[in-house]
UniProtKB/TrEMBL annotation:
Annotated protein name in UniProt: Pyrimidine-nucleoside phosphorylase
UniProt KW keywords: Glycosyltransferase, Transferase
Pyrimidine nucleoside phosphorylase C-terminal domain mapped to chain residues: 345-418
Protein EC: 2.4.2.2
Function: Catalyzes phosphorolysis of the pyrimidine nucleosides uridine, thymidine and 2'-deoxyuridine with the formation of the corresponding pyrimidine base and ribose-1-phosphate.
Reaction it catalyzes: thymidine + phosphate = 2-deoxy-alpha-D-ribose 1-phosphate + thymine; uridine + phosphate = alpha-D-ribose 1-phosphate + uracil; 2'-deoxyuridine + phosphate = 2-deoxy-alpha-D-ribose 1-phosphate + uracil
GO terms, biological process: pyrimidine nucleobase metabolic process; pyrimidine nucleoside metabolic process
Single GO MF descriptor: 1,4-alpha-oligoglucan phosphorylase activity
GO cellular component: cytosol
Subunit structure, interactors included: Homodimer.
UniProt family annotation: Belongs to the thymidine/pyrimidine-nucleoside phosphorylase family.
Cofactor entry: K(+)
Native organism taxonomy: Bacteria, Bacillati, Bacillota, Bacilli, Lactobacillales
Amino acid sequence: MRMVDLITKKRDRGELTNEELTWMIEQYTAGTIPDYQMSAFLMAVYFNGMTDAERNHFAFAMLHSGDVLDLSEIPGIKVDKHSTGGVGDKISIPLAPLVACLGVPVPMISGRGLGHTGGTLDKLESIPGFNVTETEAAFKKQVQTIHEAIVSASREVAPADRRIYALRDVTGTVESIPLIAGSIMSKKLASGTNALVFDVKVGNGAFMRTIEDARALAKALVSISQTAGVKSVALLTDMNQPLGVTIGNSLEIAESIAVLKNRGPRDVHDLTVALAAQMLVLGGKAPSLEIASGLAEDALRDGRALAAFKQLIQAQGGDPAVVDDPRKLPQAKYRIPVTADHSGVVDQIDTNALGLAAMQLGGGRAKKDDVLDLAVGLILHKKLGTPVSKGDTLVMLHTDTKDVADIVGLVQKAYHIGSSAPKKPRLIHEIIRP
């Protein structure tokens, strides 16, 4: 085979075979196909798409470019959750201990933030001592012992995807559903899980801005899972405003602790319970979503989920004292309010802009090698539908510098204050099943 022939075939809207896709990924991983040819192929896919069969084969080829964990020695149905990324999306942090304390093993391999979206690993690293890098043996032992672990992927997991993702980032080919689905699934299937729950964000703070795009991605993820013999379900959830009231690493840990104490913002609580219910049903711990939701609510009320979070922190080298005293988390030096310049009702929020504001404070990465300030971020005082008087605080900036005039302006512009309340946003838009 020759790579130029595969590029030409895809350029001309042809369908590549399993053998061709496997050869391409093997050769690219081995370094015999240059980046410029892979870039040309990615652009052809961006414009012409892939058939369902191509998309599935592409994901599996990337999956088998590296190690695939075998978790069969761990009893029970292993269930993981994946979010496509959003602003203030800290759901994995309360979710993993909640599901684990109810007996479902949660081997969660998570990622870091880039751009306007935050990363679970970065948030957890704001807990003093928390280690997100474990050996395969330690990872398995921890899941077997306490039913939960949240770690980074090893460099041996889906190495083809790591190289291809870097190319997509600099060639304008990120927003391609077959490529996104292949990237997600090559890593998730490599974790050795038996079932997956997908949280596909949709709205102005998500990569998928429209319901149609989010639905297409959700269907692709569920289809690949089904072909792989992994049970799955996908929820399309709202990202037209941040989740909860915090954006920023240590701030989101503090909010997650509040949720685990059965307090905290209603939207974070409700989405955590909804995703937990799906995981409990897939994990065989409940016959229906209604019963599963009740089990999750009970575990939040009686403290079992909170205790499981302490176990997780301790198992991964962190200081569990932060659960009882979140002030032990990194704290920013200054609090700077962003105020409303007129009265009305918050009828629109540019969620993407608020994520970028957190990044510009130092809480997120513009480039993959940027060093984070884990203490900084935003606390939202107003969300959609909230009445506002002139001079009210919209957002409180937590910052380590007073030189934030540009960020104050960015946040003010992110809020549109009108004369009437918007329609109440739906937290969950759709549920996609095989």
